[in-house]
TrEMBL record:
Domain Glycoside hydrolase 35 catalytic, residue spans: 34-357
Pfam families noted in UniProt: BetaGal_ABD_1, BetaGal_gal-bd, Glyco_hydro_35
Catalysed reaction equations from the record: Hydrolysis of terminal non-reducing beta-D-galactose residues in beta-D-galactosides
Molecular function GO terms recorded: beta-galactosidase activity
Active site: E181, E265
Any one GO BP annotation for this protein: carbohydrate metabolic process
Signal peptide: 1-21
Domain of life (superkingdom): Bacteria
InterPro entries: B-gal_1-like (IPR026283), BetaGal1-like_ABD1 (IPR048912), BetaGal_gal-bd (IPR048913), Galactose-bd-like_sf (IPR008979), GH (IPR017853), Gly_Hdrlase_35_cat (IPR031330), Glyco_hydro_35_CS (IPR019801), Glycoside_Hdrlase_35 (IPR001944)
Residues of the Beta-galactosidase galactose-binding domain: 541-599
UniProt keyword terms in alphabetical order: Glycosidase, Hydrolase, Signal
Family assignment from sequence similarity: Belongs to the glycosyl hydrolase 35 family.
Protein name per UniProt: Beta-galactosidase
Length: 628
């Protein structure tokens, strides 16, 4: 009897060790291949970002990926999402990265982590917190002591969150990226010596190691940018490379003459901007390229396999010679195989068919889509005067206009006003507008200035004893290119009228819209919609509010085609920007953000050219309709 008891006790003591041994796994890069638990294992990955999907849908979307035949999920980590203020960290709810990774592991997926600290990703400021621009002596993305101090704090804090989820500790994380597309930045910033670029890149790699990341590292760049982007000890991978012979040649050159060979960003679609056509890539083209990779032992990461949505103020921006800013759409559909709302597409089916021919594991069916509902009419019974409300707030006064950053504001809007005792007229010029402004004189709309169309001037006539009002919107900080270092917002240069700089007596009223405005607190600036006072707000910025009752919830798309420009809050959640120029005319509302019973909608409409009484939703998104 005693022997049996001792045996059982020993068994109980050894059981955790056995379970631990079973749960641990290995992932190695050796002999030109990826090895998972000692077996050659190609990586068939898809990029999918936790922050662009409600956390309630993470498992569904990961199951969608499995149903396409993929065995890995890759995700960027968005520094600014997790540290909105210096030292204030948030990894809860839709920001719970560790939970996202754990769910991926539960679904049998490997995980590739891409922590940046720069990520690009069509995301606000490429993932950097806006407040870095207020740090004295800071120069981002280079060998700068102040910058590296903050990147170390970020990387160390990230490790505390997800370090134990590396495969070396029994988790699903198999690889970590070192920096991101750094070769592009080296090519864009030739004013910085190559030696300094390399020193910076090596220090980021060392910070990852010092924090405790000990799975294989990799870099990703266009194949022609490896000279500046690779770093010793990290596997080079080639973004967007369809020429397999060239892929192998360039990887061999920078990886001791051998693989493995991987395309870390295989594009099934492309990013999309406001006021530009929505790009599309054919399903057959992507299926053929997928098969070429599989035939030639090339691992890949489909960027994006599911794009999701740039909720709130998370979308970034690009620029080119014709447009000083190209703000990204709220939708991050990307023409991806899994649509913005998590639906199967012809591209999904095409890729799945190809993958099933080459893998030695069973590919499950895709899960059922989330139910979709339509709400034909939501009555908007209240309207609020935003100019009137703002000017009753306490202002910040300065001789010259202050930037958002100087006002300690990251996103949203700022109302700039200047009172004139004497009349003034002529050309109003704001070359430092960042990014979009509606100009008023005593509440009467005078015109629009727009960095997107390079419209920085207009004629103005300010009469005696009148107030100039300029409502400025931050449309998202630039996330790619050398101009990423010039990312302050608001009015960042002198304002002139008829060639004369306007100084003295500028008032700034911050409107960050970081939380849904409470019309109940706006007092006598709120009117019944349809009233005489509400009608007088035509062409003025307003807040509309309405409630609607649901018996059943589901995903839906709010139809904003007849509206102007603004943002929408559903039950207190900012679902993103809309703009009449298109091509996006609907905004995605996840069903998990709706509830049975009463729901509330608040719309901030900046233009209000045609006052509205109602708004509705549809079952199918409109993402390809340009109006400009």
């Amino acid at each position: 009897m005693k022997k049996k008891i001792i045996y059982l006790l020993l068994l109980m003591l050894l059981m955790p060790l056995c379970l631990m041994a079973q749960s641990k796994s290995t992932f190695e890069i050796k002999d030109g291949h990826f090895y998972r638990n000692g077996k050659v294992t190609p990586i068939l990955s898809g990029e999918m970002h936790y922050a662009r999907i409600p956390h309630q849908y993470w498992r569904h979307r990961l199951q969608m990926m499995k149903g396409m035949g993929l065995n890995t999920v890759a995700t960027y980590v968005f520094w600014n999402l997790h540290e909105p203020e210096p030292g204030k960290w948030d990894f809860t709810g839709d920001k719970n990265l560790a939970e996202y990774i754990r769910i991926a592991g539960e679904e049998g997926m490997m995980v590739i982590l891409r922590p940046g600290p720069y990520v690009c990703a069509e995301w606000e400021f490429g993932g950097y917190p806006w407040w870095l621009q207020n740090v004295k002596g800071m120069e981002i993305r280079r060998d700068n002591a102040e910058f590296l101090k903050y990147t170390k704090m970020y990387i160390d804090r990230l490790y505390k969150e997800v370090g134990d989820l590396q495969c070396t500790k029994g988790g699903p994380i198999i690889m970590v990226q070192c920096e991101n597309e750094f070769g592009s930045y080296v090519a864009q910033r030739k004013d910085i010596p190559l030696e300094e670029h390399r020193a910076y890149n090596a220090k980021i790699k060392q910070q990852l190691a010092d924090a405790g990341f000990n799975v294989p590292l990799f870099t990703s760049d266009g194949s022609w940018l490896f000279e500046g982007g690779t770093t010793r000890g990290a596997l080079p991978t080639a973004n967007g490379e369809s020429d397999i012979e060239n892929l192998k040649k360039v990887v061999n050159q920078y990886h001791d003459g051998k693989g493995p060979y991987m395309v870390a960003e295989f594009y099934p679609g492309w990013l999309s901007h406001w006021a530009e056509p929505f790009p599309q890539v054919s399903a057959s083209q992507i299926a053929r390229q997928t098969e070429a990779y599989l035939k030639n032992d090339v691992s890949f990461n489909v960027y994006m396999v599911h794009g999701g949505t740039n909720f709130g103020f998370t979308s970034g921006a690009n620029y080119d010679k014709k447009r000083d800013i190209q703000p990204d759409l709220t939708s991050y559909d990307y023409d991806a195989p899994i649509s913005e709302a998590g639906w199967v597409t012809p591209k999904y089916d095409s890729i799945r068919t190809v993958i099933k021919k080459y893998v030695n594991y069973a590919v499950p069916e895709a899960p059922a889509p989330i139910p979709v509902i339509e709400i034909p009419s939501i009555k908007l019974d209240k309207v609020a005067d935003v100019l009137g409300y703002a000017e009753k707030m306490k202002s910040v006064v300065n001789d010259t206009p202050l930037t958002f950053e100087q006002l300690n504001q990251g996103n949203g809007y700022v109302l700039y006003t200047r009172h004139f005792n004497q009349p003034i007229s002529g050309t109003l010029e704001i070359p430092g507008l960042r990014d979009y402004a509606v100009v008023y004189v005593d509440g009467e709309k005078a015109g629009v200035l727009n960095r997107n169309t390079q419209t920085y001037s207009m004629e103005i006539d300010v009469p005696f004893n009148a107030t100039l009002q300029i409502l400025v919107e931050n449309m998202g900080r630039i996330n790619y290119g050398s101009e990423i270092v010039h990312n302050t917002k608001g009015i960042i240069s002198p304002v002139t009228i008829a060639g004369k700089e306007i100084t003295g007596g500028w008032n700034m009223y911050p409107l960050p819209m970081s939380e849904v405005p409470d019309l109940g607190k706006l007092g006598n600036n709120v009117y019944a919609n349809g009233s005489v006072k509400a009608a007088k707000l035509k062409d003025c910025p307003v807040l509309y509010e309405g409630t609607f009752t649901l018996k059943e919830t589901g995903d839906t798309f709010i139809d904003m085609e007849q509206w102007g420009k603004g943002i929408i809050f559903i039950n207190g959640i900012n679902i993103g920007r809309y703009w009449q120029v298109g091509p996006q005319q609907t905004l995605y509302i996840p069903g998990v953000w709706l509830k049975k019973g009463e729901n509330k909608i608040v719309i901030f409409e900046q233009l209000n050219a045609e006052p509205k009484a109602e708004v509705g939703t549809v079952k199918v998104p409109v993402l390809m309709k340009l109006n400009n």
